[in-house]
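Lab meeting minutes (informal)
Scribe: AK
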Amino acid sequence: MGSVSFQHCKTPAFSMDKCKVNIGSASRLPSLDGLRAVSICMVVIGHCSKTITGLSNSAYMFLGFVGAGRLGVSIFFVISGFLITTLLVREQLSTHTISLKDFYIRRAFRIFPGFYAYWLVAFVLALLGYIHLSRSDLISAAIYIWNYVPRNVDTWFLGHTWSLSVEEQFYLLWPFILKLSGPKRGTWAALAVVVTAPFIRLGSYFLLPSARPRIGMMLHTRADSLMIGALLALICFNEDHLHILKRSVSSWLIPVVSLCILVIDTSLTMHFKGGYVLSIGYSLQNLMIAMLMAHVVLYDKTILGRILNCPAVVHVGLISYSLYLWQQLFLTTSNTTFSGFFPWNVVCAFAAAELSYYMLEKPFLRWRKRFSNVQDNAAPRQQVASERGMEHFAASASA
């Protein structure tokens, strides 16, 4: 969706009357693509570790620890909440409304081509008898309700669509809520979801026993991962809150502490499982991801920022959506062809992702720009002369 840079000046919260807003051609901030690369690599390592033979038990444990797919998906969720909310608030402050129709069309151009290409391949493979997929599997994946459909046997080849279902359900509800509430009340709504999420998870566990196998997959139990990203975006549109945020995440200790806590979180999850994850695990994880993301976005010239900005890392982040889709075919012991054996399965997964990105994603990404309601001349252009009264925050909006 291009990129956006916006400057904050001494005006009331969420006001743009005296601020200059530049939309469209500013350079990307690839730190977020770097975080995407980290998250997809965690998923890939976690999945492909099961296809590697001949390793010691300690080696398998290490790969399972590094390849914490649950954490990788959480990173995706926080980034998505941040970027989508940035787009929505920017449009609302610039045009005084949010076009839900155009938003959903843009999301369709972004998500559907790669997804339904993968779904179609899975459908054909099922018809030919190479993989097993039930009618319920195919339908629930196709209409993004996989995470709410009970099943006795989890089907691997479409199993990852649970996270895509969570995101699509978020895309369906959050723009409508934000349009009605506006940024200020939307901030309180996002905070409310983040605070109440642990209680909702525990309540769902005890009150809905039949839903326990899906407790970490449903929107109402995982919405806080997306909403903490949304909350971060809303904070960045408020001058006073942005000042506090920048001071809070400026120290080099922020990424160190965040990464250490995430390592501890993974260890606690492996030992205590649901008792820890449902009560405080997800919430602590989301907070650390948000703090880490704020640091690398606002201070991208640090050592960590330079690593995330490395061209090779950024490229992996760019193809991360396609890679997440197509790795499911190859990184599994259920694939008994050569493409299912390590390391060829990793090569095939990346090759399929590259093809999908360049042949499907990029062409449709160009077409979706026609449905952007935010133009350079849509926002007031008056600029305050005093440089001390201004803060700059650049955010990639290419979700």
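Next up, CB showed the second protein from the same session:
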Amino acid sequence: MADQKLPAISLGGLGGSSPGVDAGSSHDPLLHPELYEGVALRRVFAHFLDMLIIGAILFVPWLIATFVLVVSIGLIALPMAFGSFIFIVLYDVLTIGGPASATPGMRALGLKVISWNGAKPDNLQALLMSALFWTISSWSVLPLIVALFNPRWRCAHDFLSGTVVVRRNPA
């Protein structure tokens, strides 16, 4: 059996004319390992920073909702939790699907999200990424551990949504 040479995966358009793809970039970790250096730890800190921002935004509504929760004898608990989930997912969708392709925490730590083909993710892809992250991570950390076993530090929700997190301006 003849040896087959596997092609390198090029995630950016290298002169191609795909719409929305940065024609001068390639996101292959074998060709550009600097895009993935420190991404895992930066993602963790970016997540904590985003949680602080979300917590600050939701503090007053949660305070009011807690008072209403007591008055309603707990009947508002489910809508309160659902509303918080919707807000957090919208935060992710509007920031990851927006012009910067990153949440404020990701931007602060020099990260951005790209589609598997190197383009900016659209809102639907950002919605899928966020909803999968929050749904999966609410019941298990195993899908997050997937990041430890691949060269792009992609978690299960990244694989399922077709996204990759890279450094914005690698050194």
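CB comment: Confidence is low (pLDDT under 50) at residues 1-25.
No objections, moving on.
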